[in-house]
Design goal:
The protein is of the alpha/beta class. The protein is 29% helix and 35% strand. α2 (30-44) crosses α3 (58-70). The model has no long low-confidence stretch (mean pLDDT 96).
Length: 171
């Protein structure tokens, strides 16, 4: 199945000069969505994660679906100020702008192996921040799984060999 047919290219969103890869058509199609989650699971199977950590917001969609498929628990990595209690925090630069990610402290035992999930890998700043959060929480980030990798933006190289990246579609 050619999943690229379900990714909409939106020029100049959310800022001029950005070509936004919108997964909304894929999510709206039951077969394409299922195939995408299946492909993510197959791509990341060898990483042997105990938990899936999805990054707000679109990483929640794929991460939660993947977690249930793999029979694993799910950790939400959220934007600033959304999580109660003690949190770990990491700031990062996006392809467009800056933000802060947070992870609840003390939810899972130290040493748990987590797979980081997002919809798109661009420059890698988001996944790098998620990795730093996982480390701050005493967790082991075993890799990252994304539906779309924008190869020209160099995210994979930025993340380095210590965080293996598994992508389903590459542009
Ligand atoms: P980065 O931190 O540069 O790797 O950016 C990845 C994050 O920003 C992901 O959460 C994506 O959802 C979003 N993102 C960045 N660039 C794009 C793009 N061109 N199309 C869709 N989402 C993007």
């Amino acid at each position: 199945m050619d999943l690229t047919r379900y990714i909409a290219d939106v020029a100049d969103f959310p800022q001029p000069g950005i070509l936004f890869r919108d997964v909304s058509p894929l999510l709206a199609d039951a077969v394409a969505f299922g195939a995408a989650v299946h492909a993510l699971g197959a791509a990341a199977a060898d990483l042997e994660a105990d938990l899936v950590a999805g990054i707000e917001a679109r990483g929640f969609i794929f991460g939660a679906a993947l977690a249930t498929r793999l029979g694993r628990g799910f950790l939400p990595v959220r934007k600033r100020g959304k999580l109660p209690g003690e949190v770990h925090r990491a700031s990062y630069a996006l392809e467009y702008g800056e933000d802060v990610l947070e992870l609840r402290a003390g939810i899972v035992p130290a040493g748990a192996r987590v797979l980081l999930v997002d919809d798109v890998l661009a420059t890698g700043g988001t996944l790098d921040a998620a990795r730093r959060l996982a480390q701050a929480a005493g967790l082991v980030a075993v890799g990252a799984a994304v539906l779309v990798e924008l190869e020209a933006l160099g995210g994979r190289a930025r993340l380095g060999t210590s965080l293996p990246v598994r992508s389903v579609l590459r542009y």
